[in-house]
Write a structure and sequence with these properties.
The structure holds 2 protein chains of 2 kinds. By secondary structure, chain A is an alpha+beta fold. Chain A is built from 9 helices and 17 strands. Chain B has a 4-stranded antiparallel beta sheet. A 3-stranded antiparallel beta sheet of chain B has the order 3-4-5. About 5% of the residues of chain B have low confidence. Classes of the chains: A alpha+beta, B alpha+beta.
């Protein structure tokens, strides 16, 4: 009898251990103009993911500039108003990043982005005069945030597309923590949040897409309790009647799509909002300025640049956590 | 004081049976979970969803010729699957992001059509990555 009991006990332990390791919950949703995948592991996985989805929907209804009832749309339509404390803080953060990057990231680019309409049903090439006139509306000096009161100059508008998903990933990190989720990975378009470790020994392996070969990766980074955000112009673009290709990231200094020496920029750090803003900004800056910017802010983030001439350049903090891809035609080099 | 006079220490065939049963169960459990975990193991598979519903799941490594899947909705998409990947070859959507993505061939990669809410995702064990950014 004791022996039969021992067999049953051993079998029960084996099954319980297996169930423990495989408890995982995933949700796929469309929100914030992208497709999102949220995965969590552990006993609280489902509660954590469901709470995170609710949070994303809440943020989209508040920060979108395509949903008419959002705080941002109301602000753009009315030119001034009172917003929630949360939105005011995000606008202040966006202003700070605009100042730090000398306007390479700029949420007031919205009127120029609308004129191009590159991610809409009706993209077009605005005339040089039109762009020149619209550039007069671009710049941090056109927005005033005082407490929760926000004022835009006449004709100006804001677009948080370059920072909202990053902020959402920061909020998901908080929601996961509140729900006791200690292991998970969240992908919000080009934004990834790696929560804790994948298992006891390994972090989350995140691949950076190869911009010049859709079938391949350019590199793989291993992350834990970090955010990674990639910006690049190689997927969202339109071809004009004369055959010219215009990609979707607009340089706030010129009003034209970026035509630089980078095909993709990945920022890795512990603040999703910052990573999102910097990925756009450093893509706009180009290789030389991006490296110089990182050199003076190296305590804030890590960087992976993919250049038009076939290099993968990465910062020393990523050594040991960045893998090249077998058979890749890229030249891999540490910056600095 | 009363003590037990003798304790049998030598293993008997019943003990061997216990060990054999535990080993057998361990093996069975391992193989059951190893083989049944679709997203974590097995061959390269394309999973196609349309407006949140899975409309196709095709084992690409088993394909001997190209397979075409057409998605119809507000916008129509033509997806071609082959043993080495998946590609949206044409779409009537305005932005054409799904067509611009090109051919994908590694597990973890996906093609997304936002206007029609179509996702073509590759899953399988060979990738070893948990997310793709780009």
């Amino acid at each position: 009898m004791k022996r039969i009991f021992a067999i049953l006990l051993a079998a029960g332990m084996l099954f319980s251990l297996t169930a423990c390791g495989s408890s995982s919950y995933t949700a796929d949703i469309f929100a914030m103009d992208t497709v999102m995948k949220l995965t969590a592991n552990g006993a609280n996985a489902q509660a954590g993911v469901e709470a995170a989805v609710k949070e994303i929907n809440r943020l989209e209804s508040q920060l979108s500039n395509t949903i008419a009832s959002s705080e941002i749309s109301q602000l753009n339509a009315g030119g001034s108003g009172t917003v929630s404390e949360e939105t005011a803080q995000l606008l202040s953060a966006a202003l700070t990043y605009a100042q730090k990057t000398e306007g390479a990231f700029d949420m007031t680019i919205a009127p120029v982005v609308s004129a191009w309409g590159i991610t809409t049903d009706t993209p077009r090439v605005p005339s040089a005069d039109e762009i020149s006139a619209l550039l007069q509306l671009v710049g941090s000096q056109h927005i005033t945030v005082s407490g929760t009161s926000v004022t835009l100059d006449a004709g100006c508008a804001i677009d948080l597309g370059g920072i909202a998903k990053g902020y959402a990933s920061d909020r998901i990190a908080a929601v996961f923590a509140e729900n006791g989720v200690t292991s998970g990975v969240v992908s919000l378009g080009g934004n990834v949040y790696a929560c804790g470790m994948k298992d006891k020994k390994t972090g989350w392996r995140v691949a950076i897409q190869d911009p010049r070969d859709s079938a391949n990766y350019a590199a793989v980074v291993t992350l834990s309790n970090q955010f990674a955000v990639t910006s690049g112009g190689y997927q969202r673009y339109f071809t004009a009647e004369d055959g010219t290709v215009y990609q979707h990231i607009i340089d706030p200094a010129t009003g034209y799509p970026v035509k630089g020496d980078l095909t993709s920029v990945t920022i890795i750090g512990t603040n999703g909002t910052m990573c999102d803003a910097y990925s756009t900004a450093l893509y706009v800056m180009g290789k030389e300025k991006a490296i110089a910017y990182w050199a003076s802010h190296s305590d804030e983030f890590g960087l992976v640049l993919i250049t038009t001439d076939g290099q993968v350049l990465y910062t020393p903090d990523l050594e040991g956590n960045l893998e090249s891809v077998e058979g890749s035609s890229y030249a891999y080099q540490v910056i600095g | 004081m009363h003590t037990k006079s003798s304790v049998k220490l030598r293993p008997c065939w019943w003990d061997g049976l216990v060990v054999a049963a535990v080993l057998l169960l361990s093996g069975a459990v391992f193989f059951f979970f190893y083989l049944s975990n679709g997203s974590g193991s097995g061959d390269l598979t394309a999973v196609i969803t349309h407006r949140g519903e899975e409309i196709g799941r095709v084992d690409l490594t088993a394909l001997t010729s190209e397979e075409t899947i057409t998605v119809e909705g507000t916008y129509d998409l033509t997806i071609v699957l082959s043993s080495d990947g998946a590609q949206v070859i044409s779409a009537t959507c305005p932005t054409q992001d799904c067509v611009h993505t090109g051919k994908i061939s590694r597990a973890g990669q996906s093609i997304v059509c936002l206007p029609e809410q179509v996702v073509v995702q590759l899953v399988g064990a060979k990738n070893g990555v948990d997310a793709v950014i780009g």
